[in-house]
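Hi C.,

You asked whether I'd gotten around to modeling the 274-residue construct. I have! Everything is below, sequence then structure, no commentary in between.
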Amino acid sequence: MEVGVFYLIEIWYTRAMKIEDTIKKAIILGATGGIGRQLAKELARSLDHLVLVGRDSDKLSQVQKELTGSKAQLSILTLDMLDQVALEAFVESLDADLLVNCAGLAYFSLGCDLDSASEQDLWQVNYHSPVQLIKQVVQKNQKIQLVQLSSLAALFPHPYLAAYSASKAALQTYTLALQEELRQSDSPIQLGLYILGPVQTAIFPPKLVEALGGSRLQMKPEKAAQQLIRFIEGDTSYAVIGLRYRLLIYLGKLLPQKWIIHFISRYLRKGLNI
C-alpha cells in the first residue's frame, strides 16, 4: 500500500515539474524553422538562457528580435549542419542543460530524379550530423538532455520522399539502439527521440498542403512545441507528438505496409503533380 502511494506521489511530482525547474540553458538547432521558431518562443518565456542556432544569420536576428522582452537571455549562433568542422567545434564548446535538434532537409521528387549532391546534403543534415553530434557528446560524457526530432516518414516509407524517409528511419534506428547502450552504462546523457507528423511549416509546398487536406489536417507549430515541452519535462525517451498521429501508427500496425505506402503515395503524387 505504501509503495503504491509513493509511486502515485512520484508520478504527480514528475508531471508537476516544469521545464524551468531542471533546465536553465537550452540550445535549439534549426531555430528559424517553423517548429524551432515556435519552440524558441515557448522556451524563452521560462528559461534563463536560450541559444538560437541556424545557418541564416538574418533569420536568426529576426527571431531574436521577435523574442526581445522575454525572460531568457538570448544568444544567436550561425552554424551550417553541412560543415562538419564547424559542427565539431560547436559540440566541443557545448555548454547547456538541453539541446533540441529541429534541423532537417527534405526534397520532394521522384527518388531516382534526386541528384547525388542534394541526396548527400540530405543525409548529412538528417543523419550524419546528428550522429556526429550525439557521438561527440557521449564521448565527452557531459550531463545534458539531447532531443532529436524525427518524422512519421521514419515509420512509414513516403513515396516521393524516398531519401528523406530512409534518412529518418536510419536516425531512429541508431538513436533507439544508442538509448539502450546509454541506459546500460548509466550515462548522464538523456537522449530523446520525438516523432512529428505533418506540421504547418514552409517545408510543404502549397499544392502539397492542399492535397493533404489543407492546413486544418496539419498540426499547428504552437501545439507541437507545447507538446514537445511536456515530453521534455517528463524526460520521455520516445514519443509521437499528436493524438491523431499516434492513432495513425496504431492503425498502421493493423494494415499491410504496402497499403499504407500506397495510401501515402496517392496524396503526395497529387500534391506534387507527378
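If it helps when you're writing up: The first strand starts at residue 25 and ends at 29.

Thanks,
B.
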